[in-house]
Predict the 3D structure of the following.
Amino acid sequence: MPSKRRVINDPVFGFINIPNEFIYDIIQHPYLQRLNRIRQLGVTSFVYPGAQHTRFHHSIGAMYLMNEALKNLKEKGHDISNEEYNGALAAILLHDVGHGPFSHILEHTLVKNIRHEEISLLLMHQLNEEWNGKLQTAIAIFTDTYPKHFLHQLVSGQLDVDRLDYLRRDSFFTGVNEGNIGSARIIKMMDVRNDHLVIDSKGIYSIENFLLSRRLMYWQVYLHKTAVAAEKMLINTLTRAKELATQGEKLFASPSLSYFLEKNITHADFENKGEALHHFVDLDDNDIWSALKVWASHPDKVLSLLSNGMVNRKLFKIEITAKKQRASKVEEFVKKYESKYNLSEHEARYLISHDVITTNMYSEEEESIDILYNDGSIKDISLASDMLNPELLSKKIGKYYFAYLRD
Amino acid sequence: MPSKRRVINDPVFGFINIPNEFIYDIIQHPYLQRLNRIRQLGVTSFVYPGAQHTRFHHSIGAMYLMNEALKNLKEKGHDISNEEYNGALAAILLHDVGHGPFSHILEHTLVKNIRHEEISLLLMHQLNEEWNGKLQTAIAIFTDTYPKHFLHQLVSGQLDVDRLDYLRRDSFFTGVNEGNIGSARIIKMMDVRNDHLVIDSKGIYSIENFLLSRRLMYWQVYLHKTAVAAEKMLINTLTRAKELATQGEKLFASPSLSYFLEKNITHADFENKGEALHHFVDLDDNDIWSALKVWASHPDKVLSLLSNGMVNRKLFKIEITAKKQRASKVEEFVKKYESKYNLSEHEARYLISHDVITTNMYSEEEESIDILYNDGSIKDISLASDMLNPELLSKKIGKYYFAYLRD
Amino acid sequence: MPSKRRVINDPVFGFINIPNEFIYDIIQHPYLQRLNRIRQLGVTSFVYPGAQHTRFHHSIGAMYLMNEALKNLKEKGHDISNEEYNGALAAILLHDVGHGPFSHILEHTLVKNIRHEEISLLLMHQLNEEWNGKLQTAIAIFTDTYPKHFLHQLVSGQLDVDRLDYLRRDSFFTGVNEGNIGSARIIKMMDVRNDHLVIDSKGIYSIENFLLSRRLMYWQVYLHKTAVAAEKMLINTLTRAKELATQGEKLFASPSLSYFLEKNITHADFENKGEALHHFVDLDDNDIWSALKVWASHPDKVLSLLSNGMVNRKLFKIEITAKKQRASKVEEFVKKYESKYNLSEHEARYLISHDVITTNMYSEEEESIDILYNDGSIKDISLASDMLNPELLSKKIGKYYFAYLRD
Amino acid sequence: MPSKRRVINDPVFGFINIPNEFIYDIIQHPYLQRLNRIRQLGVTSFVYPGAQHTRFHHSIGAMYLMNEALKNLKEKGHDISNEEYNGALAAILLHDVGHGPFSHILEHTLVKNIRHEEISLLLMHQLNEEWNGKLQTAIAIFTDTYPKHFLHQLVSGQLDVDRLDYLRRDSFFTGVNEGNIGSARIIKMMDVRNDHLVIDSKGIYSIENFLLSRRLMYWQVYLHKTAVAAEKMLINTLTRAKELATQGEKLFASPSLSYFLEKNITHADFENKGEALHHFVDLDDNDIWSALKVWASHPDKVLSLLSNGMVNRKLFKIEITAKKQRASKVEEFVKKYESKYNLSEHEARYLISHDVITTNMYSEEEESIDILYNDGSIKDISLASDMLNPELLSKKIGKYYFAYLRD
C-alpha cells in the first residue's frame, strides 16, 4: 500500500497521519466511504454555503483528536495497551457509521424505529464478524462494557473527541469563528482519576468557553431558523412521499430509497443482517436530492410544492417565539392553503409545521465534566465555574416555531 | 425581504454583502441554486476530503472579489456606471451557470457537442428574456462585446476574479495552504490603461506568486494522480453506461440523466430553449452518484466493476510518466482483463485508460498580464519578471498517464 | 504624500485603509509614533512570546473597527456627519496616547498621581491647540460631552471598539485562539436607540461569547500567574530604584526616566504643558529595559537581584489562592531573605509581594450592554441572557497572590 | 520544574513542547533570553507594524521544526541517536545567539570586524565550557565537522529549518500571506541520501513555491523601500554617533553601547572571553532606541536630525532604480544640505545614502536543493524545475538606491 495515502490533508488540523494498516482498512471500507456522501450538517448549507463537509471528514478529524488525547494520557503515565489504543481509534472512526442522509430528518420519517447509534452498533458487529473479532475491543469501548471507562468517555461523553471535532469543524466550514474551541488545550488538560476523565483546573476557562461555544453553535448554526425551516419542510416532504408510496403511488426513487418509502420498517428488519440494513447502507444524500428534483414536477400538488421548495430554496417561512402560536392562526393558514391550492385539510396541513424546539446544553445526568484541583479534589464544572449559571446549564431551553409555505 | 439574508457568511472572505435586489434575485434563481448541488472540484474530494465546496459558493466569492475590484477601480478615478457595475457583478455570478456535474467529465461523455461557456450564455439569454432585458449589459460584458473591455477581463482573463476566487477557495478547502494567493493585494494593484487591466509594478511579486501558486495547485490538486485516476474511471463508466443505454439496455437514472444517456445530443438540441437545455439544468452531482450506486450491481460486468470502483473508492491505479507507455503493456492488460473477467476485447478496454495530460499555465495568445511601471510604460509579465522563464511560462507541459483497474 | 502609505498591512484585519489626510497626520504625529515603542501587553511576553504587539498597532486596529462601526450605523440610517465621523476616528486613535511603558506598573510606582486617561486628554488638548481646534469634536466625544452619546460609547463603553480590537489582537498574538471574538458580527448587530448603542437580539450569542472570551483572556493571559509575578517584580524593582534615586543614589537612566525616578511628581506637574508631560511623552519600554540591564549589576543588592530577575527571567515564584496567605508565612520569607542576602527587614520585603488580584468582567454601573428585540423592547444582557449568571457577571472576583524571589 | 512551562504557545505552530531538561536549560539561559529583546526584523516594523516578533521566538519555532524534521527522518529509517537529536536541537536554538540588535546595521557600524555567526560560535564554546562539554555535538553540527552532514544542512543549508521558520513567521507577523510556505509538507518530503538532505520529487512544487515565496518576502518585506530607507538612516546615525564618540564627545548611552561607540573593536577583543563579548551580550534593541531618543536633542545637528528622523518616523526618502543615480544629483543634495543646515560637506553627506542593494535567492555554490526521483536519481532543483529559470535563480539581482533626508 503506497505510503502517500497514509496522510490526509485536513484544512482544520493540517496533515493527519493514518497510524496503521488496521485503521487504514477501516477507512477504506465501503461503510466509511459512504460517509463521504453524507454531509455533516444536512440542510444547514442553505444558510452557510461552506458547510458541505461530510461525516467522513468529521470521523477522520475525531480519530486525529482521539490519537492526540491517547498520546497525552500515555505521556501522563496512564497505561493504554496497543489493543486499547487501536480499539479507541476504531470506535471513534465507526461511531457515526449508522448515520443516514439528513439523519435526524430520516429518523422522523423513513427510519423511525431505530436510532443511528443502534445502527452503528449493528454495522460494527457485522464488520467484526467479517474481520474475525478484530473490533471486539472497539465494540466494548463503544458500548461502555470495556473495563477502562475513560476510553468510552473519549468516544461518547460530555467532552468526547466527537464534540471537540465537530464544534471546531463546523465552526471552520460555516465561518462562524466565535464557535472555535481550544481543542488542543482541552486535550492537554485531560487526565484520568478513578477511571474517569478529568480536566486540570487550569483548563476551566477553556471548558467554559467550550460550553458557551457549543451553545452559540446551537443557536447560530444547528438551530438557525432557516435551517429549522428547511428541516421541517423536508420532514413534511418525505412524510408525504411515504404516504403516497404506501398508497401504491409510483414515485421516482433509487431502489433503496423506494424500500424505505414503501415499507414500514421495524427494528427487526434491521437485525440479523436484515434487508433493511442492507438498503440502509446504500442510502446517502444523493438519493434524497435526486428524488426531490423529480418529485418537484409530480402531479401530487403537496409533494411537488414541497419538493420544489427544497430544490429551489423556496423554504418555509418560519417564526420562532417564546410562546406557543395561537391555534387559530394555524387553522387560518390551513384554510388559506385549502382554497389556494385546492387541497383537503389533511393535505393542506403538510404546508405547515409547528412544534417546540428544545436544547439542553449540558445534562448532569448524562455525565459530568469533572475538574481536578491541585489538592486532588474534583468538582463538576457547574459547581467549579463561578461564571456559568449551574441551574441554567442543565435546564432545557424550549422555543416554539411556526413554519409555513411562502406565498 | 428580510435584511438578514443579505449577508452570506464565507469562511474564506468573511461576511459577504449582497449589494442589491437585482443581485439577490439572480442568486435566488433556480439556475444559481442548482450550483449548490455541483461541487467545484468534482472527484478531487477523493484526495482532499475537505474539497466539497460548490460552484455556487465559488460564484458568490467571485462576486465579492468583483465588487472589491470595481470599488478599487472607481477609487482610482475610472468611470464605472451603476449599470456597468451591476452588469459585471451579474456576469461573474452567472459565468459558471452552464457547468454540469463533473463538468469536464461530462463534456467527454454525455454532453459532447457544446462547451459549458456556451450553455452559460444560452442560460443568460433565457434569463434576460425572463427579466425583460435586465441582463443586456452583463451579456455584453460576458461576450466581450461591451465597449469597456476591462470589464470583460475581470470576468474572463489571465487575472480575472474567477481565478482569484477559485485558487484561494480551492487552497482553503483542500488545505493546500501554499496555494494561497494575495487576492486582496492583486486587486489593490489593479488599474486600467487604454481600456486594459494593468497591474502596478509594485505588485509584480504577487503576480509571480499567483502564477506559481496556480501551477502548484494544478499539479498538487487539479491534476493529482488519484484525482486523474478517478476522473478517467468515471469517464469510462459513463461511456459504458451510454453505450448500454443507446443499445436499449434499461439503466437506473433520473429522467434527465436518462435523456443524456439514451440520446446523442447535438448543439441544436440546446438552442431555442430546446429540451436538452431543459434537462441539462436538472442535472447535478446527485444524479450521477445515485446512478453509480445502483449500477454497481448491474449485470453488465464492465459497468458494475467501474461503478463499484467509483462508489467504494477502488479507483484505477495510475502511472504518470514523462514518456508514453509501451503499446504492448496496454495490450497485456487488455488480455489479462479479458480472461480474468471473461470479457470481449472491446469490453476489456474499458478497464484501462491512457493518454496525455497537459497544462499550460499561461498563454500569451490568450491575453497577457500587463505590468504598469511608474514611467507609464507597460510590459507583459513574462518580460517583466526576472524570475519566471518566459518560454516555459507559455509552454504546454505534457505527461503521459496509464490507468487501469486494480486487482 | 505617496498613496502607498495609506494602507497598513495588519495580520489581524488585512489591509487597513487610512481614510484621509487628517487621520494620516494624527498617525504620523510623534505622540502616536511613540506607541510603536510601547507593547500592548507589557510583561506578558514572558508567558506568550508572540505578544510583542504595540499600542500603536492596537490603536490602528481600533480605528479600523470604528470605521466599520460608523459605516454600519450610517447604512442603518443613523445620521453621522463628516465632522463626527472624523472626530470618532481621531478619538479612538488618540485614546491610548497617555499610556506609558508598562502602564499599570508605572501608575503604581513612578507616575502615581495621574491616570493614563487624564494624560491622554492633556495630550489631546495640546494637539488641538497645535492644530487650531481640529480635535474639538474628538475631545468632546472622548469626554462624553458631545451630544451624540453613542459615539462616546464606541470609544469607551462595554462594547467599545477598543475592547473589540484588543481582545481579537491579544488573542491573535498570544495564540490563545479561544479568545477570538466575532468582532465583525458584533459590529453588524450594532444599532442606536435613544442615542444609546444597542445590539440586535440575534447577536446575543456573540455578546455572551464576547463576555466569556474576555473572561478567558483575563485569567489565561492578562492575569496569568507568571505575568502577575513579573509585574509584581517590576513594581518592586522600580519602587526600590525610586527609593534609591530620591535618596541621591545615582542610577543609570535616560534623562526622562531619571526625572520620574528622582522627583515625586504631582498632578500639577502634568498640567499646563508642565515638564512632567514633556518627559512623559519621551518614555517608552526601551528606557525601562535599558535601565534594568544596567541596574542588574548595581551594588545595591535588592536592586540588582530584582533587575537581574527581570532581565534574565528569574521571575518571582507565585502562588495564587482563594484564601489569604498566613501572615506568618510572609514573615518567614522576610527572615530568610534578611539572613540569606544580609538585608534589613525593609530591604528584604522588596523580595516579596502579596496582595489581592481582582477583576470584574462586567459592571452594570459602568454602562450596560443593551439588547434590542424585534418588538422594540430593550433589555440588559445580564437579564437577556439565559446562560450567564447575572449576579456573578457583576461580581468582583478576588484571589490572593503571594510572590517571592526564587532561590 | 513545573510541567506547565514546558509548553510554549505559538500563534504560528500552536503548542510547542520543550522536549527535555537540557533544551529547557538552554532556553532559560540569559544568552537566549536576550534574544527576547531583539526583534527579528529590526526596522521593518516601520512598514509592517505587526512585525515585532523576536529572535527568541524564531529560535523556538526553528527548534520546533527541527524536532519535526528529525522525527520524520527517524520514521523513514534514518539512524539518529539521542545525542545527535539533542545536538541538532541545541544547534538550531543557539544558531542566532550571536545576533546583536539591528544585526546587519550593527555589522556596518559598531561591530565591524566579526560576523554574527562567529559570535554565535564563541558563545556556544563558552556555554559548552560552562556545561562541561554538553554542547560538543551541537557545536560539531553547527560547524559542519560532525560526521552526519545532513544534520548540519538542517541547521544551515538551502532548506534549513532556520529559513523554513523565518519565512513562515515573518509572513505571519507582517500579514504578507502570500509569503506562506508549506513547511509541514516540505518537512514530510525530506529524506537523506549519501548523507545529504534530498526532497522527494512529489515535493517539487512546494520547493518552487518556497523559492518564490522567499523572493517575494525579499522584495516585499526585507528589502521594502521604506525599510531600506530606515536601515540606511540608522547606519548613518550610528556612524555619526561613533565619529563623535571617538572624538571624545559625551553621548548618552548604556555602558555597553558606550563601549562599542567609543572603541574600535577588533576581532581579538571578542576572543578568549574578551570584554567585547561581555559587552556584546548586554546589547539589545533597547540600548539603541533609548540612545536615539536622547540624541534627538543633541547639539550636533547631524546626529539630532538623523536620530529625530528615526524616533519620529521622518525617514529618508528613497528612490530605487535599475540604473545608478547621476553623481551630480548626489552633489546637488550635498550642497543643498550644507547651506540649509549650515553643515560642512563631510557632515552633509550623512544626510544621504546611496549604493547598490543585491540579493541572490539561490546560490548553487552554497549548496544545492536536491530532488530525489522514484528511480533513485537526484537532480538539483534548478534543473529539476521546468518552471524556474536556472540562470536567473543563481543570478544576483542588483538595484540602486538613493536615500536622503526629507525636507
Summary: The longest helix of chain B spans residues 225-246. Chain B has two domains: 7-223+367-396, 225-358. The two ends of chain B are 57 Å apart (CA to CA). Residues 358 and 398 of chain B are 4 Å apart (CA to CA).
